[in-house]
Amino acid sequence: MDEQRNVKLNNGILMPRVGLGVWKSLNDETQQMVATALQNGYRLIDTAKQYGNETGVGAGLQEGMNKANLKRADVFLTTKIWNGDQGDYDQLRKSFNEQLGKLQTDYVDLLLLHWPVFDKYLESWRALEDIYRDGQAKAIGGCNFNVDHLTNLLDHAEVKPAVNQIEFNPRIHQPDTVALCQKEKIQLEAWSPLGNGQTLNEPVIKDIAAKHHKSVAQVELRWELQQGFVVIPKSSHFARMRENLDVFDFQLDADEMEAIAELDQEKHSIWYNKFKWSGNPDGVDDYIADGNGF
Q1: CA angle at 95 for the pair 91 and 96, rounded to the nearest 5°
Q2: Element (H, E) at 187
Q3: Keyword Oxidoreductase, does the record have it (predicted)?
Q4: What is the pLDDT of residues 214-267, one digit of tens each?
Q5: Which end of the chain is more exposed for a tag (fewer CB within 10 A), N or C?
Q6: How many CB atoms are closer than 10 A to CB 263?
Q7: pTM higher than 0.85 for the full model?
Q8: Average pLDDT of the residues in 114-118
């Protein structure tokens, strides 16, 4: 495997640095996206119970592996624990086994707590540690954990988190969280690495992209990769899917990196700050923001 295209986690396993996110995709579309991605070089797929499309991921995984002549070990699969399954050890493990069934696999490569649910994430972490020890997850970590959450988790964890997936793009950098993860050798992974499309018209990035004969999206992903992040852009379009993976043949210089960094507004996505957990027992649509879901 190309070392430039993979990063070694703190437990020694390799994780691809560019993957496919499938948030907001229905099952049929997700199946097609995953199958197409695997046939065109992607080896990291990121989903979650909240997205309601693990069944599509599982079907796409099987289709893509068959058509690309891949083994399960060739694919790095990530999913996440729903908030409504957190805090109850037995419920979490039961629900995770159901997730594995939908994904048509007996293990995931990375299992994340989707949010640090107040007064529940430490008990949830205990379940993840046992899932890890039992081999049902090759690595475990958090998603949307800030400095306080991580510090508390590190004080109590027996298995150190391998990954923290956070919102990160030219408009939001979360420097304190990034610094702590780097210090503790917790791999950073960027969700919404293209700022939900809101950063694609930035003149500064357009100028840099023209200089390198690359797209704005490729420059943004390259900017994040050079800071050590794993990135999981979403696209259902074949050309953009290929484009997002084609980011290892150029380098941004220090001035270009700084010019993009100066776009920081340190504001989460609009929905993020209005996040409410409804506790929906069905495990879908528990994220509510302006009626648009997660």
Answers
A1: 115
A2: strand 187-191
A3: yes
A4: 999 999 999 999 999 999 999 888 899 999 999 999 999 999 999 999 999 998
A5: N
A6: 18
A7: yes
A8: 92
Q: Please list the active-site residues.
A: 51
What type of residue sits at position 90? D
Quote the DSSP letter at residue 237.
S
Homologous superfamily of 3-273: NADP-dependent oxidoreductase domain (3.20.20.100)
Amino acid identity, position 54: E
Do 280 and 50 contact (CB within 8 A), yes or no? no
* Measured CA angle at 25 (ends 20, 26), to 5 deg: 135
What DSSP state is assigned to residue 268?
Answer: -
Q: Which residues neighbour 148 within 8 Å (Cβ) at sequence distance 6 or greater? A: none
Q: Domain spans of the chain?
A: 3-273
What is the predicted pLDDT for the residue at 273? 56
Pairing of strands 110-113, 230-231: unpaired
3-state secondary structure 226-244: CCCCEECCCCCCHHHHHHH
CA nearest neighbour of 120 among 132, 128, 110, 111: 128
β-bridge pairing 14-16 and 187-191 = unpaired
